[in-house]
Each structure stands twice: as C-alpha cells, then as structure tokens.
Design a protein that fits this description.
The complex is a heterodimer of chains A (about 450) and B (about 850).
Chain A: H1 9-20, H2 24-37, E1 42-48, E2 54-59, H3 66-72, H4 84-87, H5 99-106, E3 108-114, E4 121-126, E5 129-135, E6 141-147, H6 154-158, H7 163-180, E7 185-190, E8 193-197, H8 203-210, H9 213-216, E9 219-226, E10 229-236, E11 241-242, E12 248-252, E13 255-257, H10 260-269, E14 279-280, E15 282-287, E16 293-294, E17 305-306, H11 309-328, H12 363-368, E18 372-375, H13 386-395, H14 402-418, E19 424-427, E20 433-439, E21 443-448
Parallel strand pairs in A: 1-7, 12-15
Antiparallel strand pairs in A: 1-2, 2-6, 3-4, 3-6, 4-5, 7-8, 9-10, 10-15, 11-14, 12-13, 16-17, 18-19, 20-21
Chain B: H1 7-18, E1 23-28, E2 31-35, H2 36-45, E3 51-53, E4 61-67, H3 71-80, E5 85-90, E6 103-109, E7 126-133, E8 136-143, E9 148-153, H4 159-169, E10 172-177, H5 179-185, H6 189-192, E11 200-201, H7 209-220, H8 234-251, E12 262-263, E13 271-272, H9 274-279, H10 295-299, H11 305-316, H12 322-337, H13 339-350, H14 355-364, H15 369-388, H16 395-402, H17 408-417, H18 420-424, H19 440-467, E14 473-477, E15 481-487, E16 499-503, E17 507-511, H20 513-546, H21 548-574, E18 580-582, E19 588-593, H22 596-601, E20 610-614, E21 621-625, H23 632-647, E22 656-660, E23 664-668, H24 681-695, E24 701-705, H25 713-731, E25 734-738, E26 754-764, E27 767-776, H26 784-791, H27 795-811, H28 813-840, H29 848-862
Parallel strand pairs in B: 1-5, 7-10, 9-12, 10-11, 13-23, 18-22, 21-25, 21-26, 23-24, 24-25
Antiparallel strand pairs in B: 1-2, 2-4, 3-4, 5-6, 7-8, 8-9, 14-15, 15-17, 16-17, 19-20, 19-22, 26-27
Classes of the chains: A alpha+beta (about 450), B alpha/beta (about 850).
C-alpha cells in the first residue's frame, strides 16, 4: 500500500511559498528588490490594511517583455542568473527565482508591465492559476499588485499579526530600503497616507526623510577606501545613542543586511565613547567584491557570510575608531563662538555620570557613579590643552557666572595637565555635588560648592 | 409724505432718499430695522418674517429686523445677492425726554468694498472702474481689504475684446463706469452673458482728469505719479478718480492702506477667454463647480491665506514674459532642492496670519485686540523665516528677504501692551486687554476695580458685624446696582440708614449712602477704565499705521514666498520637472507628459505618459484621430495645462519640457446648448471658432476638439477641413485638432506643418483595449460601435449598427476624399493654365481691344 504521494505542483508551491512569503513585509521586499534589479529610479509602494489586503509596487524600470510574462510566474524562473558560475558572483538582489511563484500561489497577483519598445500587457494569476492575459495601456516599467494574501491558506492567514503590526514591519523595511538606495526616489503610502517620500538625491537626504532633523544634525560622514573595499555612510555622534540596535542600518553591496561581525566591530569602536548598553546610530554602506561575500546564506537574504570575517572586523573597527578619535580630539579652537552645541560636546567624552534623559538624581545615586574618569586611548596621546577647556567652559552660555566656571575649568584642566601621561586620571571631587538640571540631554549642570 | 409721520419715520425716509440704491439698515435700539420695499426684499432674501409698524400713515409700514449683534451674516447674504447695504447707526446715547436720537449712515457696504473677513472669501475681491473716452479705455481696480490697487489701459485694437479680456482675467465683483462706457457695456461678452454684474454709472465729474489727478495724488500722498508709471496714462488716471470717490463715499473714512498703485501692462499676461478658463478647469470643475479637481486645488499647498489669494491670482493671470517666468521658476527650483529648509519654511508660514488683511483692518479701524495679538505672533516668526532662507541665492528669494526686515519695535510694543490670556479668554464684556505695566493709570484703575470687590466684601463683613444680621449679603444687578440683601427673618434688625429699594420673595434689598458712594467710585472706575483702554488702543492703532506700508510690503513678500513654496512642494510630491521657457524657443516639446489633475485624482490607474512635439515649421498641427474615451481630450488638455503651468512659474508633470512663450491659449471643447441664449450647439461652436480665428497669432496654442459637430456630416467635414487649412496656413498657430473625420488625415503632406496622430488601441477578443499612447499615423476606425457597446447599448442595437456601418463603408464616404482632391487639383490646374498664358503674353504687341478680349477669356477659363 503506497503511503508516499508525489505532491502536485500547486501543493508544493504553496508549501515552499511558506519559506519565502512569511508575511506582507517579505512580499514587499521581494517585489521591491525586483524593481531595483530592473534599474528603476522611481519606486512607489502602496499598502492597504498592513499589506494584507493589498500591496502595490510600481517602478519605472526596464519592464518585462510580453513573452516573458507567463514564464515569470513559474518556479525557479529568474532573469538574474543563468549558469552555476553566476551564483558565485551574484550582482543582483534577487536570484532564487522563487518569489513571484510563491506569492502568486498564495494570493491574487496582477502583473502589469511594458518595455520601452514593447506593448503594455496585464497578466493576472490567482492561487497559481492564470486568470487573464491581455494587452493593457500602461507606462514604461512594471507594476505588481498583490491582493488578499493567504486567501487560500486560511491556516497561514490566522498567523498573520494585526494589520498595524504588519504595517510597522513594512515601514521598518521601507526605511532601510530608502537608506540603502539613496539614489532611488521612493514613495511609500500606507492606507492612503503618505509615509515617506525620498527625493533620490543622496544619503543625507534619505536619512532626513526617514529620521528627524535632530538626528541629521548629529552625523559624521564616513568615506574610506580599503583595497577593494569601499566604506561610506554616516555615523552618529556619541551623544546620540539609543538603548537598542534599531537605529543601525548596514548595507552590503546595496542589500540591507544584519551582520553580527560588522555590528560588533562598530560597537567596539564606540566603546570608549558610550555608556554600556547604549548603541550608536549608523548608516553604513560597504562595497565588497562579489566573490568575497556569500549572499546565499539566509532564507530571507538578511545575512551574509564573509570570506574573511576577521579581516572585516579589523577593518571596520579601525576605520570607525579612527574617525571618532579624529573628531573628538580637542584641538585648538578658533575664535568663533560655536552656535551649535556640537563643538562644546567635546566634553561629552569626559562624561562622568550616567545620562538618563530628564531624570533628576538625588544624592544617593551619585555614589554609584564612577569616582574616577579614566581616559584611555590606544593610539595617540590625549593631550588636553587647558586653555581650550577654559575657553570652552567660558563660552558656554549656560553658565551664569563665568568667573566661577573659569575657576572650575581651570582646576579641572590643571589636574589634567599635571598628570600628563598616557593614562590620565581625573579625580573629580564628588562629595559636594548637587545636580541642578539637565540641558539638551547633554549637559548636566552640577553645582559643587560655589561653582557651577 | 403724510403729516402724521413720526419723527423717526421722517428721518428714515429722508435718509432713504439719500441712499436710494441701497438697502438701508436703520438702527433702532438693539435691532437693525428695514421698512417698506427694503423690508419686502429682505424678508424674501433673508427669510425673515415681514411684520408691520405704525408710522403715522393709514397703513402699517412693512417692516422686518435683525438683532444688531448678529447682523454680519445677513449683510453678507445681501451682498452675495448683489445688493448694497447702508448701515445707519445711532450716534449718540438716548437721553430721556429729548428729541430723537441722532442717527446717520456710517458706512455703505457694497460687493466691491467689503472689508469684514466674514464676508470676504479667500479670493481677492476687486472693485473696478472703467472710463471710456472715444477710442480710449482706462481701467483701474482695487481690493479694499488689502489695499492692492492697479490701473491699466486697453491697448488692443479691438477695444471690446481687449476690455473683455481684462474683465475675465481679473474678475471684479462690482463695476463702476462712465456713461460713454455704459452705452457699449452690453457688447462686452462677459457682461452680456451675465458672468459679471451690470456696471453702475457714476457722474462724469468724477472721471474728469483734474479731479481724478488730484484725488489720486492725495490718496497716495505724493506730488507726482511718475514713480508709478502713471504720469502719462491719463485715461487710467481718470478711472481712478471715480473709484476713489466711490470708495471714500461709501466707507466714509480715511483709508491709508491704499498707498500705492501699480500700472499693469496688458500684454504682460497670457490671454485666456472665459471659455478656456472654464474648459481647463483652472479654479473650479466644469461638472460640479467644485474646487476639488481644479488646477488651483492641485497646486494649492500654501500655508497662509495671503499665499492662497496670490496663487489664485497667478493662476488667473499666467505671464507672457519669459524673464518674469524664470524669475519665479528659478526660485521654485532652489526650493525643491532643499528639503530641510523647505520644511522649516512651511512650519513658519503655517503660523503666520493674514497680515495683508490685518493691515487693511488697521487702516479701516475695525481691528481688534485679538487681531493685534495675531499680528504680533506673525511678526515674531519673521526672523525664523529669514533664517530658513539663509542659504538661498535666487533673485526672487533675495528680494523676499529684503522685504522682510525685523519688526522688533512693533513686536515689543504689542507684547507689552496686550494681555494675551485675557484676550484669549473670549469674554465679551469688560475685558481688560491691556497688559499690566503698560500704563500707570490703567493699572491704578484695575487695582481700584479689583479692590472694589475687596472693599465690597469688607463692607459686607462690616455691615454684618454692625447690624448683627448673619446672612446679610451684598449683591449686584444691572437695574439697582449694588444692594444689601436681607432675608425676611432678619428684616427687623435692619438699621435706620438702610433705604429699602426692592422686595423679593425671600427678603428685601436695601442701599446705604456709603454703599452707593462706593458703587459710584467702582463704576466710574469701570467707565474710566473702558474709556482709557479705548484711547490707548487708538494710540496703538496710530502707531501701527506708521508701519503700514512696510508691513504691507512684507505681507506681499510672504505671500509670494508661500506661492513659491507651494509650487516646490507640489513639484517634489508629484515628480514634476522644470520647464524651459525662452523667447527664442518657438516649439513645445514635452517628454512623457501627464495630465496633472487626472493623474492626481485617478490614483488607482497609473497614468500613461505621452510625448508632444509642436514647432513652428513642420509640426505645427497635430491631427488626432481615434475612438472616444481613448484619451484624445485628456491628451490635448494636458498639453494646454502643461503650457499654462509653465507660464505661471510652476514645474510641470513631465520628464522634461521645453515650452514656447505662448500669448494665448484657445480651447474649443465640449458640446453645449446655450438654449437660454437662443443658440444651438452648432451655433455656439461656430461662434467660438470664429473668435479663435479672429484672434489667434502664430504664438498661440489652439485646442480644437471635434469641430464640425452638431451639423450634417458633409457640412461638418467641409467646415473642419477649411478651418484646418486656414489655421495652418494663415494663423500658423500651434494646434491640436481632434476629430472623427478620418478624411482629414489626408491633409498631412498636402498642408505644411500638419502631422497625423492617433490614440492607439488594441482589438482583443472582440473588444477594444485602450493603450492610451499617442502614436504617429492616422486611423480610419473610430470604434464608435465598440465604445457604444462598452457604454451598455443593447446587443441588437450594436449588431444592427455594425451591419449598417459595413454597407456604408463600402459605398459612400470614401468617395468624398477623391472629390475634394479633384476639386482642388482641378482648380489648381486651371490656375496654372491661366498663369502660363499670361506669362507667354507679349504685352508690347497687344492692342487695347485685344487686351480687353484676352481678359474676358481668361476670366471665363477661371470659372
């Protein structure tokens, strides 16, 4: 009695689809990656009800030829690779040939496309079956509309989370997408409300589209070449840190990934500048030769494997540490009084106490604070010019009595000068501290005796 | 008038005599009342009850009234219905026993002179004055709420259409004119067709040059009109005389915010007739006359009311000057590039009030403390605005920055003077809006007032003690003032110096001399406080008047910035590009153009873009054939809209666009029976076409959608054909011609500059699919039957139609083309023959008689 069945195509497609199409966000990802691979400079993403009811992605890429349209929905069909050797040098985001087939087997998909010299065509598939195939008036490029996700697999539909949650996930993905592709103008609309619209100019504008002015004001540019590797992007100044890794975006060869090696390397580089448990902001773009990295690792293509992870680690660490050091070493400051608080932030590297935004301390917690500040630096000397510190503090407009602050600064600086070695210990007299307040989430105004 | 009339009635009738053409609202106590005809009109228009009043005549006079504090909406409704309203107020306090209260008309509200914001829309509201002297016409127009004042003279050779253009470009809500103009007013289409109200004639003396010149100079406070380019424009000046006189006559006060005038050169603007404005749905849609779906709706991302008004004006008046256009579009371009600055600018603008109208209110005298606070808040934001503009370099933005100085003095003064929290509390009576610390005397009086309460309380305590009455209270009402209230049970303990004033159910109320003295002090403090406050407020108003011209200029600059900001926002959001306009470029080249409104409203379908190439040589005329519903009209309108948008300085929906400087846009679209005017569809169409043919130049853009409809096929075809020829050879304007007459496709190759295009369709499974792409080449299939079937015509009708079509196609219509060919070539053949004969003549050998015969022969040949 035969117990083993050879599954019909429609069944195994539906099962395999589960790997690729977990949720609306994965559908959006697959569709958008196709658009990017098609060379689009303009992508428009529209979702309804968290993407469960409807997802539409329109691009102005190269389009699909009429003859290719029906093939597109077959499993293992892709225009991205052709031979096995292609797998070793994947230059596109999509390559598995699984996405369209999977999506079409668990939803209703309309594919509308037109190449520059071809005719517009509309091809509709539902649950793996072709519904219609006819000429259609449309502009150059491709539009894919997916409706009613998991309409024919109620079991999976039950596992969909609430629409708002799915939408949040999509929004998160789109924001990474925007930062990974600053030269593509991306428009994202959810339930008829415009969420993002990036201008497709540069990374700075892309970050501004996703994040606020506050973040954008506190960025340091990164641009470095290291043999065949190219690292570019922005890292956030240490004053802007978050208690989790959500504000970190890593893009490798144009693909958004989450990679332990790199994120740890960067974290280590920030070690001396941040409190424990706080993570920095960064948007980093790495171009690696295709043969040094393998993207066919994770089912969601969300991670990659390096040929030489240690080398990657060392490279990232050094680059970031270098930049941080160069930015925050106190050099002689010109006459101009800084209008922004950035220049004055040099002192943040001397931060003594924990920064909890807005909370006021009572005297008890002070005991927990480190009584000493140890300034370490591996490479160069960390000379503090005491004149500059005095200048800094005196130009700080917060202080009411500049004389007093000068005196304090003078004291502080003197201490530093006197112990002019590689390891500089600053003994700050902590006993008579009284915290007066927190300014800009940056400064803690501390009164010690008569000084502020 | 009958002898028995009451004095009030007499006065009413006298006043009414003076203001016969207005509805007289006569203030009687707490009401504005209307009598006789006015009452009947108002009762109808305002839906009020018509009652009567005894006035001394045999019959009661018809009367209706409205409460004085709710008069605004009623006046607004009357104005909206085209009436003028004269407000007659009580000028003095009613005193007992004396004669009737003094009353007089304090202002006349007319449609062109409304200044209350509740009655004015978000558009500019213009009063126009037209002066005609022989062939010269001078026009001036004023928006009294903002002080915008313009003048122009009609320079077109056809005075009627020139005047009509100006009237449609700047639609006035009220027109004044002199007698001579009134005689020809009926010939002006927009007046004839009732788009505008009938002009009112003012006596000639107000149009006289001497009078006008002096009046204008006085109003503008200047000795010479040279700086306004008006020194030599005598006709324009004449028109201003009447306008200013009318304004002062109705408003009865000085209007110092009218402090400059701008001379407008008419050919500075593109000309669009009323039909085109309507067809292109510039400010409202054709079908439902709504804002949504109009170009204004699309481009309106302004954040201030001033910006919105200015945008409206810009859309109504596209420019015909490439320098001016580029002045605007360069600034828009800069704004599109800087998202950060743009957001800041938007935030600032959002919080700025309508400074222009506030200035008008300052000048007019009806500004309130609340308005002053709004003004202060707006001025306070200006430094932020200029800061946001810091890095911009385009000339327009530099000019804007120039016009926004710091208003520290004004802000400080208003800050110190007004107590925002008490103003915000929206109390009606006895609000003390002056801040403490601003004026000593006020502070004193306020203290007195507050102390007064304390003193009353103290007195209450004292009285309680003195008399031993435990539940003694001191109360206040408007009738008796302060009183001491004692309940019936305690009545007997009342001392002798208590004077009984009132008995109530529960007790009795008394006063004492002391109490009355205190009351006197407190109340007089109140009065003095009110009086002093008003005086201080007046002083502040005077102070603001000094800054008026400056603030008005700043307001205009902010409005301009707002419009540029709006253009930039829309351009970024909808992916528009910067159009290239220059005088030397004579062609319209649009790559991947889209219809801005259709693509915005039809979000479900992705709009299919199309290219357009129209130049002044080999591609002047596009003949577009193809089925209905395929997108012909949309395509043509998109070309017109893109051209127009380019001429107001905005970006356009296309990948790239080069637009020729266009002086006029004509559209002949849609079918309409103007039965009320006794015109059929065809008649209307022909009238419109004739206007086009008479007025188009080689710089114009013409959109013709199916000319030749509404009459028999042959007639229509013939007319369409010859119109095409005329346009193509005589006018040389850029033309888009959509038609169902496929025969017209033969014109390509025969007429210079004509090219055939069609909307591509695909036949699929017995139905048509519209591909919406415009491609070269004509078509001879209209797919009318397929479209009709799509529309739902019954099956039998469709089938029968198909067979009829079949037989028709076999027989007749194909022959038409050949006939016309024959006609043409036949004629040309004859002409050539005659010319040859003339060439071969040897004139020297001809005798007069022979010559005579020859001429007769040649003539016969040409027949």
């Amino acid at each position: 009695m035969s117990k083993i069945n050879i599954l019909d195509k429609s069944i195994f497609n539906r099962i395999a689809a589960g790997e690729v199409v977990e949720k609306p966000a994965s559908v959006v990802k697959e569709m958008v990656e196709n658009s990017i691979d098609a060379g689009a400079t303009n992508i428009s993403i529209e979702i309804t009800n968290g993407g469960i009811d409807r997802i539409r992605v329109t691009d102005n890429g190269c389009g699909i030829e009429v003859d290719d349209m029906s093939k597109a929905f077959l499993p293992h069909a892709t225009s991205k690779i052709a031979t096995i050797s292609d797998l070793d040098k994947i230059g596109t985001l999509g390559f598995r040939g699984e996405a369209l087939c999977s999506i079409a087997s668990v939803a209703k998909v309309s594919l509308i496309s037109k190449t520059i010299n071809g005719e517009g065509r509309r091809y509709v598939v539902a649950g793996g079956e072709v519904v219609s195939d006819e000429p259609f008036g449309c502009s150059d490029g491709t539009t894919i509309i997916m409706e009613n996700l998991f309409y024919n697999v109620p079991a999976r539909a039950k596992f969909l989370r609430k629409p708002k949650q799915e939408e949040t996930e999509i929004t998160n993905y789109v924001s990474r997408l925007i930062m990974a592709n600053p030269k593509i103008a991306i428009k994202y609309v959810a339930d008829n409300k415009l969420v993002f619209q990036s201008p497709g100019t540069n990374l700075y504008d892309a970050i501004y589209t996703v994040y606020s002015k506050q973040i954008v004001d506190n960025l340091i540019e990164v641009e470095k070449d290291f043999n065949e590797y190219h690292i570019s992007g922005f890292i956030g100044k240490p004053i802007f840190s978050k208690p989790n890794r959500t504000y970190q975006t890593l893009v490798i060869n144009g693909r958004y990934v989450i990679n332990q090696t790199i994120s740890t390397a960067i974290y280590k580089a920030y070690e001396n500048y941040l409190m424990k448990g706080n993570f920095p902001f960064y948007v980093i773009n790495i171009s690696i030769p295709f043969d040094k990295v393998d993207v066919n690792v994770h089912p969601n293509k969300l991670d990659v494997k390096f040929e030489d992870p240690n080398k990657m680690f060392g490279m990232m660490y050094n680059i970031i540490a270098d930049i941080l050091f160069n930015t925050f070493t106190v050099k002689s400051i010109e006459e101009d009084i800084p209008t922004q608080t950035e220049k004055l932030l040099d002192l943040s590297s001397l931060s003594v106490l924990k920064k909890d935004e807005g909370k006021s301390f009572d005297n008890n917690t002070i005991d927990e604070a480190p009584k000493e500040v140890v300034l370490e630096n591996d490479s160069n000397d960390f000379k503090l010019n005491f004149n500059t510190i005095a200048n800094l503090l005196s130009t700080n407009k917060q202080n009411e009595s500049t004389l007093k602050s000068n005196a304090y600064a003078y004291n502080l600086a003197k201490q530093v000068e006197e112990s002019n070695s590689e390891q500089t210990n600053l003994n700050l007299d902590i006993d008579n501290y009284k915290i007066i307040g927190v300014i800009f989430n940056t400064y803690i105004i501390v009164q010690q005796n008569d000084y502020i | 008038m009958a002898k028995g009339l009451s004095p009030m009635m007499k006065h009413y009738l006298e006043t009414k005599e003076k203001y016969k053409d207005a509805i007289l609202m006569y203030r009687l106590g707490d009401f504005y009342e209307l009598f006789f005809e006015d009452a009947e009109i108002c009762s109808r228009v305002l839906e009020l009850t018509l009652t009567g009043k005894d006035c001394g005549l045999e019959e009661r006079a018809p009367m209706c009234g409205v409460p004085y504090h709710a008069v605004e909406p009623y006046v607004a409704k009357l104005i909206a219905n085209g009436y003028k309203v004269a407000i007659c107020e009580q000028l003095s306090e009613p005193t007992k026993g004396k004669a009737i209260v003094e009353r007089d008309v304090v202002r006349i509200i007319t449609p062109g002179t409304v200044i209350d914001s509740s009655m004015v829309e978000d558009r500019s509201n213009y009063l126009k004055s037209i002066y005609k002297e022989n062939e010269n016409i001078g026009i001036s127009y004023l928006d009294i709420s903002t002080g915008e004042f313009y003048a122009t003279e009609v320079t077109a050779t056809d005075k009627i259409s020139g005047t009509n253009d100006i009237l449609t470009r700047v639609r006035p809500s009220e027109i004044l004119c002199n007698n001579e103009f009134y005689k020809i007013a009926e010939d002006i289409p927009s007046i004839k067709l009732n788009y505008l109200s009938k002009p009112q004639v003012l006596p000639n003396e107000f149009f006289e040059f001497e009078f006008a010149n002096t009046t204008l100079k006085n109003q503008l406070n200047t000795n010479s009109l040279k700086q306004y380019n008006m020194a030599t424009r005598q006709f324009a000046v004449c028109s201003t005389g009447a306008l200013l006189h009318y304004v002062t006559d109705t408003q009865k006060r000085e209007l110092s915010h009218i402090n400059k005038i701008e001379y407008v050169v008419s050919d500075h603007y593109m000309q669009l007739d009323a039909n085109t404005r309507r067809n292109l749905e510039l400010t409202e849609t054709i079908r439902e006359r709504k804002k949504r779906g109009s170009l204004l709706w699309l481009l309106n991302k302004t954040k201030t009311k001033m910006g919105e008004r200015l945008l409206c004006n810009y859309i109504d008046q596209p420019l015909y000057d490439d320098k001016e256009i580029n002045y605007r579009s360069k600034a828009v371009s800069e704004l599109t590039k800087n998202i950060y600055a743009r957001e800041l600018i938007g935030e600032c603008l959002y919080n700025i009030y309508d400074i222009e109208r506030l200035c008008g209110k300052v000048s007019y005298g009806n500004i309130t403390p609340k308005d002053c606070v709004s003004l202060k808040r707006s001025l306070q934001l200006l430094p932020n605005l200029t800061e946001a503009l810091r890095s911009f370099e385009s000339q327009a933005i530099l000019d804007i920055k120039q016009a926004i100085p710091s208003y520290d003095e004004v802000v400080n003064k208003l800050e110190c003077a007004f107590d925002e929290s008490s103003i915000a509390s929206n109390q009606k009576d006895n609000v003390i809006f002056i801040k403490s610390g601003y004026n000593e005397k006020i502070d004193e009086l306020v203290e007195l007032k507050q102390n007064g309460r304390a003193l009353i309380a103290k007195m209450e305590v004292m009285e309680k003690e003195r008399t031993g009455i435990k539940n003694l209270k001191i109360g206040y009402n408007k009738v008796f003032g302060y009183y001491i209230e004692v309940t019936n049970s305690q009545k007997h303990m009342v001392p002798f110096d208590y004077i009984r004033k009132q008995t109530t159910v529960n007790g009795e109320r008394f006063i004492t001399e002391e109490l009355k003295n205190l009351e006197e002090k407190i109340l007089s403090a109140d009065e003095e406080l009110i009086r002093l406050q008003m005086q201080l407020f007046d002083d502040i108003r005077e102070f603001l008047l000094g800054y008026l011209p400056q603030m008005q200029a700043t307001a205009r600059a902010i409005a301009f910035l707002d419009v540029l900001y709006s253009f930039a926002s829309v351009a970024v959001e909808r992916n528009y590009c910067k159009p290239i306009i220059s005088k030397t470029n004579k062609s319209i080249e649009i790559i991947a153009g889209r219809h801005p409104i259709v693509e915005a409203i039809n979000k479900d379908e992705e709009f299919v873009p199309n290219d357009t190439i129209l130049n002044d040589s080999d591609c002047r005329t596009m003949v577009i054939t193809g089925p209905n519903m395929a997108g012909k009209s949309t395509y043509m309108r998109q070309v017109a809209l893109i051209t127009l948008m380019a001429h107001i300085g905005s970006f356009v929906p296309a990948t790239s666009a080069k637009i020729a400087l266009t002086d006029r846009i004509f559209t002949r679209v849609g079918a309409s029976d103007d039965l009320s005017f006794g015109q059929s569809t065809f008649m209307v169409e022909m009238s419109e076409v004739s206007i086009i043919l008479k007025n188009a130049t080689n710089n114009s853009l013409i959109i013709l959608d199916e000319v030749g409809r509404g009459t028999s096929t042959f007639d229509g075809l013939s007319i369409a054909w010859s119109v095409m020829e005329y346009v193509s050879t005589h006018l040389c304007a850029k033309t888009l011609f959509a038609t169902h007459y496929h025969e017209l496709t033969d014109l390509e190759g025969k007429l210079e500059g004509v090219k055939n295009y069609r909307v591509s369709v695909k036949e699929f499974n017995n139905s048509v699919i519209f591909l919406r792409k415009i491609v070269r080449g004509g078509t001879n299939k209209s797919f009318g039957i397929e479209v009709a079937s799509l529309a739902g015509l019954p099956e039998e009708v469709i089938t029968k139609a198909r067979s009829i079509l079949h037989s028709l196609e076999q027989n007749q219509i194909n022959q038409v083309t050949n006939e016309v060919h024959n006609v043409n070539s036949h004629e040309q053949g004859k002409q050539r023959e005659v010319i040859r004969q003339i060439n071969d003549l040897d004139v020297n050998k001809l005798t007069p008689l022979e010559a005579f015969d020859l001429i007769i022969n040649l003539k016969n040949e040409l027949k």
